[in-house]
Specification:
Number of domains: 3
Helix content: 25-40%
Structural class: alpha/beta
Largest sheet: 9 strands, mixed
CATH architecture of the largest domain: Alpha-Beta Complex
Strand content: 15-25%
Number of helices: 22
Shape: globular
CATH class of the largest domain: Alpha Beta
């Protein structure tokens, strides 16, 4: 059995003005990200390292990786903007580089102390960043290369990096777990390796030391103070000691370039990648639709919707996709496609409105309803059963709420999805395209559910709820039924309440910033929209590189075939009610055509209170012209004119609640 791949996406139907506005918004965010990346890459500068006759960490990585191969960093912005007691400088990237790199044709995880930042010291969150990289390598069975040049803990902040569950000592536990799973580890020791820095390479399968390197439990200065001995650290734990006496290291090499060449040779001895085998004779091809157009697709205003299929068409090979269960739960998209010639599953939120399954108009997108949740759980289990790596594309406002949601048992269906994602063994990767809100973020394999990797874009917003919504909840007792400040308060009290709500909303907005999330390690890496396709290609190759450690099936016997066959039989029996007729509201004059609301929500005739209305009286409109918005859970779905004509007037006011099929305005045909 073969999957029928169909084209997904098309030329963008947005106006040139909309595309330009979206591109400008994304370009500004990308430029800000580039500036931060440059600061992290520079560290504290190369001068001190070069004076010692050593290479900087990034120079070492440049010599280690295959020529022309990209370096995909993870955790780049950890500790961004954070000050530390005892240091007049910040610690870019937490003083360590963790990155997916290609060495001798194989993908590896490189963990390298940044020797320009306090001689590679471990700061708060440095251990957690290293451990996260080790966990990624363990999940994918990628060889790990340690480039060790570490002066130990940054002692003024030791209480925040030494004792806890994921403190510095947990690095060595991860070393052991990797070894127990048979994951190759190779270490190069290039300089200071004191205390924990000395322990870090020891469990590796192969340890190289340069002539400038030493590994010690305690440095010379501490020994002088404790035992009144006059020694150097090289005397105590240099290559003469650890290669020729203690056997804690294997090979002694003269300098950095020689050490890196030996490490490359070690990786070349390992099995090659299985990715070509799992391509089943298919060549990797780029998308037919330009991936760079993703910047024009996503709206500058996060409340506006877009077509997720257009984004998928710019991520997958040849813009071809096999959608699974397309007629069930259309608020989510599930399907299979090749990325770099390799099969990957995709589970994505659909931000656009979709028909209500019982014929009651439309429902807003970006929300999880019963059928969509069940569909996600079934698809997730099928991918796990078939061994197909799974990508989650999040743009979610949360679970549905209200009487219907509770009566339908969304808590139970959501728990089934969470169970599936918590117990899957197949590699899963999560991308926060834009919104990642509430329990929906959890259900769609958010970071707490341990995907191998979670990427976020500069447009992403990670929080339980939006700032304005949270401010309303916090000040609810001081607001009226329309969420305006209660008129019982005097002018000074009203001003104080307003300022408090604005401060609360602003604080939440700052917390939702994706840079802040990356700095806290609430997401693994911040990437540009234009980088999503290259990242997915790398993830696919890494997911299929190692062989023999997880279940895989030939595509002919995938469980997804059975799932689709059973679903088709079931769908043929379902009878959907006809949509209700439009509410009968007298037209202001004969012969007018009604504009009808497609769903329940709040009506808005303008994009924002301070901006002009979408249409003015007498304006000529095409049938697909955007004329208004319906707001549900802070998501705005556009209302189209529906037929060509001239706009007459609205039948409702901004902020009014409307229902499916309700007449909200008129056109003169």
């Amino acid at each position: 059995m073969k999957l029928r791949l169909q084209p997904i996406g098309s030329d963008l139907d947005l106006s040139a003005e909309e595309q330009a506005r979206n591109r400008a918004s994304v370009a500004a965010l990308d430029a800000a990200l580039d500036e931060k990346r440059a600061v992290v890459r520079a560290g504290w500068g190369p001068e001190k390292v070069h004076r010692k006759g050593k290479l900087t960490t990034w120079e070492r990585i440049g010599r280690l990786v295959d020529a022309g191969s990209p370096v995909h960093s993870v955790g780049s912005l950890v500790n961004w903007g954070r000050d530390f007691a005892g240091s007049q400088r910040q610690a870019p990237g937490a003083g360590v580089v963790t990155a997916f790199c290609r060495v001798e044709g194989r993908w590896v995880m490189v963990i390298a102390n940044d020797n320009t930042v306090a001689s590679g010291a471990w700061w708060p969150l440095t251990p957690e960043k290293i451990e996260r990289a080790q966990q990624m390598a363990l999940r994918l069975r990628l060889p790990v290369i340690y480039l060790v040049d570490c002066s130990g803990l940054f002692l003024p902040e030791q209480a925040r990096s030494f004792p806890g569950l994921t403190g510095a000592g947990h690095i060595f536990k991860k070393n052991a777990e990797l070894a127990a799973a048979g994951v190759p580890q190779v270490a190069g020791v290039f300089g200071d390796c004191i205390a924990g820095g000395g322990y870090m390479p020891l469990i590796s399968d192969r340890v190289y030391m340069t002539e400038q390197a030493y590994m010690v439990i305690a440095g010379a200065a501490l020994i002088k103070g404790a035992k009144s001995l006059s020694l150097t650290s090289l005397d105590i734990g240099g290559p003469e000691v650890h290669v020729h006496q203690s056997a804690c290291a294997d090979v002694r090499v003269p300098d950095d370039p020689t050490c890196l060449a030996h490490i490359r040779a070690e990786i070349a001895r390992l099995p090659s990648s299985g990715a070509d085998f799992y391509r089943h004779g298919v060549e990797a091809v780029p998308p037919m639709l330009d991936p760079d157009e993703a910047a024009a697709l996503l709206p500058a205003d996060h409340r506006q919707v877009y077509d997720m299929r257009q984004l998928l068409g710019r991520l997958v090979d040849a813009s071809l996709f096999h959608e699974v269960l397309a007629d069930v739960g259309p608020e989510v998209i599930t399907g299979l496609a090749r990325v770099g010639g390799l099969w990957m599953g995709f589970a994505a939120n659909n931000p656009e409105s979709t028909p209500h399954p019982e014929g009651r108009g439309h429902r807003p997108g970006g929300i999880l309803y019963r059928d969509g949740i069940a569909k996600l759980a079934a698809f997730s289990r099928a991918c796990n059963d078939d061994g197909v790596p799974l990508v989650w594309l999040q743009d979610i406002a949360g679970f549905d709420i209200g009487v219907e949601a509770e009566a339908q048992g969304l808590l139970g269906y959501g728990s089934s999805l969470i169970y599936s994602n918590s117990t899957n063994q197949v590699p899963m990767f999560t991308v926060l395209v834009r919104k990642a809100s509430g329990a929906g973020y959890y259900a769609m394999a958010g970071l707490p559910y341990e995907p191998v990797l979670q990427l976020a874009t500069p447009l992403s917003r990670l929080a339980v709820m939006e700032g304005r919504t949270l401010a309303i909840a916090a000040y609810n007792t001081k607001l009226d039924d329309d969420f305006n400040i209660d008129p019982r308060f005097d002018a000074d009290e009203r001003a104080a309440i307003r300022q408090g709500m604005e401060r609360t909303a602003a604080r939440i907005e700052a917390d939702m910033d994706p840079v802040a999330a990356a700095a806290r390690m609430d997401t693994d890496e911040l990437v540009k929209l234009s980088e999503l396709r290259p990242w997915l290609v790398v993830l696919a190759e890494m997911a299929w590189q190692a062989t023999g450690y997880r279940r895989t099936k030939n595509p002919r016997i995938w469980s997804v075939h059975d799932l689709e066959r059973l679903a088709r039989g079931r769908l043929a029996q379902i009878q959907v009610e006809a949509p209700p007729p439009a509410a009968e509201i007298p037209a202001p004059e004969p012969g007018l055509v009604a504009i009808v609301s497609p769903m329940e929500g709040s009506f808005w005739s303008r994009p924002a209170p301070s901006e002009p209305a979408f249409v003015q009286e007498g304006a000529a409109l095409a049938a697909d012209a955007r004329v208004a918005l319906i707001e549900v859970m802070k998501t705005f779905t556009p209302i189209r004119a529906g037929s060509a004509g001239h706009f007459v007037q609205w039948a409702v006011a901004d902020g009014d609640g409307v229902s499916p099929g309700q007449v909200i305005g008129w056109l003169r045909p």
